[in-house]
Design the sequence.
């Protein structure tokens, strides 16, 4: 149980284009979803927290107009990187947290590797 | 503020033991441990809640000393599959976000 999927697994795009990444909780309802970015050999850096049906809360330094997050349902959140540039190339990982237990455990998706040319 | 993990890296022979520490400057509600293999997403190992919990699964166990604001992960009789980067994530209150440490790279050699 507690499986999170991401699509696509990887994407290569040209500078200036927009890229959408989907995050789905397959067997649980994720009341909260998190989006992280990870550069090579570095830790997971939280970008934003989203609760179903409400606006995402962005971490300091993360441009909300560049990284659009939508959490339309309890099983789906999307991250759109608008006007992507090479410096946006990274490994983007989402996680979901359900409410079936009281432990606040986050379950991570397999990640999406974005390469902007 | 990011918790501090130590050591940054460790190399083990199969069957050896290792300890990974995670220290925070803030009072903690919980500590979460994850293992990440190269190019993959982090996999949840265990969570420890305040109250001095200790937990284990197979030969991996952990403890949480809330007074010292630190947690330790113990790899006992390590296996090749234990190789990866271990991250601790700390939570200062229930329902809050996790803040991850810098990670500890573990390499288990035959």
Sequence:
């Amino acid at each position: 149980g507690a499986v999170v999927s991401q699509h696509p697994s990887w994407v290569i795009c040209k500078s200036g284009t927009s890229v959408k990444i989907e995050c789905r909780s397959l067997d649980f309802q994720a009341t909260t979803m998190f989006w992280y970015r990870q550069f090579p050999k570095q830790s997971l850096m939280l970008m934003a927290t989203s609760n179903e049906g409400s606006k995402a809360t962005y971490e300091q330094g993360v441009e909300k107009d560049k990284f659009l997050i939508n959490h339309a349902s309890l099983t789906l959140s999307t991250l759109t990187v608008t006007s992507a540039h090479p410096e946006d190339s990274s490994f983007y990982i989402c996680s979901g947290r359900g409410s079936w237990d009281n432990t606040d455990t986050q379950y991570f998706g397999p990640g999406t590797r974005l390469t902007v040319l | 503020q990011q918790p501090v993990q130590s050591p940054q890296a460790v190399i083990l022979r199969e069957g050896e033991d290792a300890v990974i520490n995670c220290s925070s400057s803030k009072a903690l509600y919980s500590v979460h441990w994850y293992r990440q293999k190269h190019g993959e997403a982090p996999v949840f190992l265990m969570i420890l809640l305040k109250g001095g919990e200790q937990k284990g699964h197979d030969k991996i166990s952990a403890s949480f000393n809330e007074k010292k604001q630190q947690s330790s992960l113990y790899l006992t009789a390590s296996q090749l599959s234990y190789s990866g980067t271990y991250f601790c994530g700390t939570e200062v209150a229930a329902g809050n976000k996790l803040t991850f440490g810098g990670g500890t790279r573990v390499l288990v050699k035959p």
Observations:
- Chain B is about 0% helix and 55% strand.
